[in-house]
């Protein structure tokens, strides 16, 4: 606990927190702006690909630009919780980052509300479950899409050389993929802070639990799957290295013991006296 309290006193620590706030704010502002229909009487007039690319390209651009400033940003409470479960962030740090992300999402939705015409203040990017699917199906969609996005997040930031230095590229592309699957059914949130901000501003809370439980569980499983499949995290590498050394020591000790054991049995027969002597 002493190390985390020392880190909190540093300027770089709070710079990262500020970046989480700013990144989430701009992500919600720009992404949700793309969901406003051109025809307010027809919500279906929103172009699905426009929304997908708006969220995906915004995430990719922001994360890549802020990478040299604060390192790999999370800008998603679900990803932060996954990082906590895989021991990549401290519990206090995760709580502060989640708070900054939620406040940033609220700020982004509030700015969007202030800069858009009053006649288009209908939903402003509020995510809701479509009437054609059930709540369990909506949970499954959010779970799957966030699983893929979190797996891509871990892969991109653990292997920057594979993507030519564009560590945020897998995350942005996975968000575009997620929208092509889930936009027409759940709005493809994949980010609790992205759903929380518009929900507060527009006071729309229908099935809001789906956009927390689904992404959080999907992100946790995605992060754990990556860690135990590739052994990317330091904790997993240490665990595997320790296990390997233990097995090698056991095998070496067993081989030494096997050398000391006799390979064949020998018997000594006492000589009998000659009766003619």
Automatic annotation (TrEMBL):
<feature type="transmembrane region" description="Helical">
    <location>
        <begin position="91"/>
        <end position="116"/>
    </location>
</feature>
<dbReference type="Pfam" id="PF00230">
    <property type="entry name" value="MIP"/>
</dbReference>
<protein>
    <recommendedName>
        <fullName>Aquaporin</fullName>
    </recommendedName>
</protein>
<keyword id="KW-1133">Transmembrane helix</keyword>
<comment type="similarity">
    <text>Belongs to the MIP/aquaporin (TC 1.A.8) family.</text>
</comment>
<keyword id="KW-0812">Transmembrane</keyword>
<feature type="transmembrane region" description="Helical">
    <location>
        <begin position="21"/>
        <end position="40"/>
    </location>
</feature>
<keyword id="KW-0813">Transport</keyword>
<dbReference type="InterPro" id="IPR023271">
    <property type="entry name" value="Aquaporin-like"/>
</dbReference>
<feature type="transmembrane region" description="Helical">
    <location>
        <begin position="136"/>
        <end position="156"/>
    </location>
</feature>
<dbReference type="InterPro" id="IPR000425">
    <property type="entry name" value="MIP"/>
</dbReference>
<dbReference type="InterPro" id="IPR022357">
    <property type="entry name" value="MIP_CS"/>
</dbReference>
<keyword id="KW-0472">Membrane</keyword>
<dbReference type="InterPro" id="IPR034294">
    <property type="entry name" value="Aquaporin_transptr"/>
</dbReference>
<feature type="transmembrane region" description="Helical">
    <location>
        <begin position="209"/>
        <end position="228"/>
    </location>
</feature>
<keyword id="KW-1003">Cell membrane</keyword>
<feature type="transmembrane region" description="Helical">
    <location>
        <begin position="168"/>
        <end position="189"/>
    </location>
</feature>
<dbReference type="GO" id="GO:0005886">
    <property type="term" value="C:plasma membrane"/>
</dbReference>
<dbReference type="GO" id="GO:0015250">
    <property type="term" value="F:water channel activity"/>
</dbReference>
<feature type="transmembrane region" description="Helical">
    <location>
        <begin position="52"/>
        <end position="70"/>
    </location>
</feature>
